[in-house]
Amino acid sequence: MAIYVPQILGYEPFYIQKDGASTATNILTTYGVIVKDSGYPMNRKAKQPYANHWNDRDGDDEWNTRLYYEAFTCNLECAIFTRNANGDDAARAELETAVRAFENFIKQGEFSFFSAWHKFGFRHVRVEEFHAPSANDFRVCEDMARVIFTLTVKVNDPMTDMTYDSTDNAIVTL
Questions:
Q1: Domain CATH for 85
Q2: How many domains does the chain have?
Q3: Residue 121 to residue 164: CA distance in whole angstroms
Q4: Most buried one in 17, 53, 70, 84, CB count within 10 A?
């Protein structure tokens, strides 16, 4: 598979570390996957506090000793490129193989991720939906071919901030 890793000015890597793995995977250099947009919700929704709603009193009695957040989903828009040296059909087949290899990597179990561009990461993440590319998602332009696909991930731990430790090549708690 001849996946092409384009040189994109200012692009920062996106790391995924499977639960139980000791190192993080840079998905650009390993799978050729460029994360174009993370779809990260900047405003997270707080969970409702425990409350009693008394019919004979104004307002509520709320017990909120700690602010908890709801789990959320975000869509990762991704792209993979290849050189179109052997024709459109061969390039499309290479891209389909690359997408499946990446899907097989992330579809089993929970993982942590870290976006070096956004400087945020989360743990207890799982794939909620993998949107396989359609025929319109493949493009050929001169000697280059690319496919765009999205996947929806669910973040089940929205509170723990994660960071990338380049010394150990691992995603760790901040």
A1: 3.30.980
A2: 1
A3: 8
A4: 17
